[in-house]
Amino acid sequence: xxxxxxxxxxxxxxxxxxxxxxxxxxxxxxxxxxxxxxxxxxxxxxxxxxxxxxxxxxxxxxxxxxxxxxxxxxxxxxxxxxxxxxxxxxxxxxxxxxxxxxxxxxxxxxxxxxxxxxxxxxxxxxxxxxxxxxxxxxxxxxxxxxxxxxxxxxxxxxxxxxxxxxxxxxxxxxxxxxxxxxxxxxxxxxxxxxxxxxxxxxxxxxxxxxxxxxxxxxxxxxxxxxxxxxxxxxxxxxxxxxxxxxxxxxxxxxx
Length: 255
Known about the structure:
two-stranded antiparallel sheet; disordered N terminus; alpha/beta; 9 strands
């Protein structure tokens, strides 16, 4: 390393409303999800009043995935998307559940195994910015409520495209920017007042849930993420808002 590079400050990225070094964000996000893993499903139900399950079902139903397909579920966490995808691809297909966090991956594996879901499922600890798969390997790559926690989102999107077969689809389900002005004050109240209190009450961890609320506000809005997909090399990109933009489904198609 040259002296000039050594003296240059490390690039900073958003960790909620704070700025931290890129490698520090990866570590801090890991701590957050290690902390919340055990209560993740319960807190999702409480935070969204159960609506997250409807969002996820719609996400999978609109995927176009068919029986026998090979699907990568990034930030697969506790397996909600994988269960729904497994029903579509059947035992002839494969759903690879990838997550950077070992605790989240273990919760998902135990949960699905307890339900008797074994065939056609594989679990891989990985970093979305450098996927350990060959080019053109998957029919679809999906990430639900995980992209905002990735340190280098552009790198992750490029990797998602790389591992897709020609004609394959990348899909991102993520909290986005509310489009209804009258809803914004209520949404802010829920995010910054109610959510941390729920975190403290249920998981004894207000800070992690305060970060999760902040990370939503720092995530790229709908048009910005659409452009990021195009910049990553996708031939076509689009999005569809759900619940007045509280969440959005982005899609990118590899030509």
